[in-house]
Each structure stands twice: as C-alpha cells, then as structure tokens.
C-alpha cells in the first residue's frame, strides 16, 4: 500500500477549491485528495463539518502535524506557504504586502464575484431574478478589478515580481470574470497578469483537479455546465423563498 501523504486535501472544482490545489501543484508537493460532491451535500455531512465548521470547501488535514486541520482557503494558503517555505516572501514588509493582497481577495474579490455569480448563474436559473443585486455585485467586482489593474502596472505579480499566495488566491476568481459577467475591457495590466499565470503549467494543471470546469472561463459547453452548476445549488435557492 502506498504511504499516506502529509497533506490530505478536501476540495471541489471551484475558485476557492482550486487555491490549495494550485499551491500544491506549483510547489511540487504530493498530497492526497478527497473530492467533495456538492450535489450529494458532502460538504454538510457531520463528519466533514467536524473538520470545517463552515460546511464548505476547501479543508486540509496535515498528518505530519498531529492531524492539524485548517479551513478557510486564505488560511490554508498561509499555512502551506509557511510549512513549505514557498510563495511567501521572507522580508517582513513584503510578507505584509502579501497578506494585504490576500485579504483583499478574501474580503473583496471573492465575496463580490461570488455573489455576482450566484445571482446570475444560480438564482436566476431557478427563477429568482434580482437585477439590482446583480448590478451591485458586478459593478463592485469591476471596481475591485480596476484597483488590481492600477496596482499591477509595472509589476509582474501582485507583490512586485514574485509569484505569491496572493496571486494564487486572486487568479482563479479574477480569471473567472466571464462567469461573473464582469468586464475586463481596458484593464491591460490585469489582462497581462492573467496571461502570465495562464502560461504557468502547474497552475493550469491544477485547474483540472479534481475535474475541469471550463465554463467558468468561458470555454467548452457553457450551457450544459451552467445547468449542472445551478442544479448543485438548487436547494440553496429554494430555501430563500
Ligand atoms: N471563505 C471560505 C469560502 C469557502 C466557500 O464558499 N466554498 C464554496 C465553494 S467556492 C463552497 O464550499 N460551497 C458549497 C456550499 O455553499 O455549500 C474559504 O475561502 O474557504
């Protein structure tokens, strides 16, 4: 029997779910993976909620550290970065900058785009039409993109020229602008940053784990994947009405 890996990752093919996968693939760390199936509500199963009190993905268990459990994707990235000494600058100021952009993603880009996606791709497909909410979240996401664009002028990555966990956290969200219907027109520095990370083999490999969901990026059979996605969150919409 093959030896268990130190890191056991529970995840699914979503923007938050890909963050630790991108880290592990980029760092070349081997890990065990348990895919979580939303259509079966596995993220709400009592045994899983003991690991992740929020009932969401991702979660890691570090078997080499007394089965230490980490939930919240930003905290997972920070934990892995410290454990493996990767994608986190050593200099205290640079490290603080990394944390600032990580928080900007966790508190801004992720939640705003997440709601923009939810209202358009899930709620609307289940008959809940809320144009005011959609406009609010799409506009706010675009505003955050403009902040990223201005910051990225003259920089390769969010923290100067070093690929860090701030890029790992922000990329899967911002790159899914298509799915949220947020325009990136005129944002050439943001687009150039997309291009740089699009060219990173390990990151692109990670986007296929546990399985690809190309519709987020406007590719493949978008209508079919949209139906599949709306279906897996159907019960969330019916709970609201
Ligand atoms: N703040 C959390 C958010 C996690 C989250 O919302 N995960 C979504 C997928 S991107 C999820 O598990 N959704 C399933 C559900 O809502 O039941 C994190 O960053 O880890």
From TrEMBL:
<comment type="similarity">
    <text>Belongs to the GST superfamily.</text>
</comment>
<dbReference type="Pfam" id="PF00043">
    <property type="entry name" value="GST_C"/>
</dbReference>
<protein>
    <submittedName>
        <fullName>Glutathione S-transferase family protein</fullName>
    </submittedName>
</protein>
<dbReference type="InterPro" id="IPR010987">
    <property type="entry name" value="Glutathione-S-Trfase_C-like"/>
</dbReference>
<dbReference type="InterPro" id="IPR036249">
    <property type="entry name" value="Thioredoxin-like_sf"/>
</dbReference>
<dbReference type="InterPro" id="IPR040079">
    <property type="entry name" value="Glutathione_S-Trfase"/>
</dbReference>
<dbReference type="Pfam" id="PF02798">
    <property type="entry name" value="GST_N"/>
</dbReference>
<feature type="domain" description="GST C-terminal">
    <location>
        <begin position="91"/>
        <end position="216"/>
    </location>
</feature>
<dbReference type="InterPro" id="IPR036282">
    <property type="entry name" value="Glutathione-S-Trfase_C_sf"/>
</dbReference>
<dbReference type="InterPro" id="IPR004046">
    <property type="entry name" value="GST_C"/>
</dbReference>
<feature type="domain" description="GST N-terminal">
    <location>
        <begin position="4"/>
        <end position="88"/>
    </location>
</feature>
<dbReference type="InterPro" id="IPR004045">
    <property type="entry name" value="Glutathione_S-Trfase_N"/>
</dbReference>
